[in-house]
Amino acid sequence: MRRLIALAVALAGAAAGCANGDTPGKSEATAADGWSQQRRVPGEYLVTLNDDPGPASMEKLRAGNVHIKSVQPNFEYGIRGPGNAR
Amino acid sequence: MKALLRSIAIAALAGAGLTLLNPIAAVSFALAAETAAVAGSHVTDEVLVKFKPVFAAQNRTATVAARGHAFLANLNQSGWVRVKFGARQSMAQALAAYRNDPDVEYAQPNYIYRATAAPNDTQYGQLWALTNIGQSIGTATYTPASGTLGADINVEKAWDHITDCSSVVVAVVDTGVNYTQEDLAGNMWNGGSGFPKHGTDFVANDNDPMDLNGHGTHVAGIIGAAGNNATGTTGVCWKARIMAVRVLDAAGNGTSAGVIQGISFAVSQGAKVINMSLAGGGAFDRAFSDAITHAQANDVAVVVGAGNEAKDNDAGGARYPCNFTHPNLACVAALDQNYALASFSNWGATSVDVGAPGTNILSTWIGLSASIYNTISGTSMASGEVAGLAAMLRAYNPQFTFSDVVNAITKGGRAAASLAGKTVLGNGIDVMSSLAFINPPTGLTATVQ
Question: Is the separation of the CB atoms in B222 and B236 below 8 Å?
Answer without folding.
Answer: yes
